[in-house]
Design a protein that fits this description.
The protein is an alpha+beta fold and 155 residues long. The protein has helices spanning 3-23, 29-49, 51-74, and strands at residues 104-107, 114-119, 122-128, 138-145, 148-153.
């Protein structure tokens, strides 16, 4: 194997590793191909040209790959692959549900076991205390716990 092939493999491998680190981080496939090409170039340098050439090919590949990794980390390319948005809104701890226990209403959707119900022209999400309740059934509030309204069918 001649020097042109060995240098070509090393160059191709380092270019592919550079593409993986700097331009398309996270794809892995390009980086693996680069690692394989670089490894083949180093192997052929050792087996065909001797130890000194192999050491030079290995050292040069490690140096250039390390430099590419440093450049990629310094430019924070890895941050482009993750979600950086922060949700800083807060939900209220207590909602003021002003529906007295025993208030009558009507389910506006099927409660299986949760659904919608209307009380005094206001619609709320409610939870059935036992079983499913069909749409358009008279219900009444039996409990409000942790900002949840629990209902049962009116009898």
């Amino acid at each position: 194997m001649d020097w042109i092939t060995i240098i070509g493999l090393l160059t191709l491998g380092i270019i592919l590793i550079g593409l993986e680190v700097i331009f398309i981080p996270g794809s892995t496939f390009i980086g693996v191909l680069g690692f394989i090409a670089t490894s083949c170039g180093i192997y052929f340098a050792y087996s065909e040209k001797g130890d000194i050439s192999g050491h030079l090919a290995f050292g040069g590949s490690v140096l250039v790959s390390g430099l590419l990794l440093y450049i990629g980390l310094k430019a924070k390319m890895h941050k482009k692959m993750g979600l950086n948005d922060v949700i800083d809104g807060k939900s209220p701890n207590k909602l003021h549900i002003e529906i007295p226990i025993g208030t009558s209403g009507k389910s506006t959707s099927a409660l299986r076991p949760s659904g919608q119900a209307q009380f005094d022209d206001n619609e709320f999400e409610v939870h059935s205390t036992f079983g499913f309740i069909d749409n358009n059934i008279e219900i009444e509030v039996v409990e409000i716990k942790d900002n949840k309204i629990f209902v049962k069918t009116k009898q």
